[in-house]
Amino acid sequence: MAKRDDIMTRLERAFAPHLLRVEDESEQHRGHAGYGEGGESHYRVTIRAAAFAGQGRLARHRAVHAALGQDLLARLHALALDIDE
Q1: Which one of 40, 42, 65, 83 is CB 3.0 to 4.6 Å from 60, fit for a cystine?
Q2: pTM value?
């Protein structure tokens, strides 16, 4: 399974978001640290879900990281998050 699909699946299961975008920005980082041929190293996630209501920024980030799991996070070089309810 592609990393993008894995990210989407895990976040959909955990938060049932009403908006979820997962963009592979790896090509924008060609030649920089962490870039690998074939991409799948740098991602930007935009997620909106009621599950984040009442949580601060740090709690939201922790929740997303927990949902993705260390096994997946260890395979990414960069993950930019835009999280709201």
Answers
A1: 83
A2: 0.88
For the domain that residue 76 is a member of, what is the CATH number? 3.30.300.90
Higher pLDDT pick, 33 / 16: 16
Q: What is the b/e burial string over 42-65, where b = at least 16 CB atoms within 10 angstroms of the residue's CB?
A: bbebebbbebbeeeeeeebeebbe
Burial class (CB in 10 A: 0-12, 13-18, 19+), 7: buried
Is 79 within 8 Å of 73 (Cβ atoms)? yes
Which phi and psi (to 5°) does residue 50 adopt? -60, -25
Please enumerate in sequence order all residues whose Cβ is within 8 A of that of 12, keeping only pairs 6 or more positions apart, or say none: 20
